[in-house]
């Protein structure tokens, strides 16, 4: 059974950096587009970034463009989210997810991780 496990979330000061990782097991990651979503307290889950199966294409939410970078290492079955110049509004639980198509619609994602908490202090 496929499983995704996120790690790397922690408390960081505004302006700081973090790298989140998402390790897949039970399925081959390179069959899927990989994405990161986030959910802040009291808000709906929102799309953050997505990368194609072969890393050729990426797409970001406007608020993270130029600050966040999504990447993947299919040999390690792992997806990453490099986050720089973090802001308090980036505080959320971050989830990785896999889909068979390049999409920002969370309903079209087949696999989800349990999430990792990122807290940015001002």
Query: Radius of gyration in whole Å, from Cα?
Result: 13 Å
Contiguous low-pLDDT stretches (5 residues minimum) are none
Kindly state the percentage of residues in helix: under 10%
Can you give the mean pLDDT?
Answer: 95
For the biggest sheet, the summary is:
7 strands, mixed
Textual characterization of the structure:
By secondary structure, the protein is mostly beta strands. Helices cover 0% and strands 49% of the residues. The protein has no helices and eleven strands. It has strands at 3-7, 11-13, 18-25, 33-39, 46-51, 58-60, 68-73, 78-83, 92-99, 111-112, 116-121. Strands 2, 4, 5, 6, 9, 10 and 11 form a seven-stranded mixed β-sheet that branches. A four-stranded antiparallel β-sheet has the order 1-3-8-7, with no helix packed on it. It is globular and about 40 Å long. The protein starts with a strand and ends with a strand.
Short précis:
Helices cover 0% and strands 49% of the residues. It is mostly beta strands.
Strand-helix topology:
Blueprint: E1 3-7, E2 11-13, E3 18-25, E4 33-39, E5 46-51, E6 58-60, E7 68-73, E8 78-83, E9 92-99, E10 111-112, E11 116-121
Parallel strand pairs: 2-11
Antiparallel strand pairs: 1-3, 3-8, 4-5, 4-9, 5-6, 7-8, 9-10, 9-11
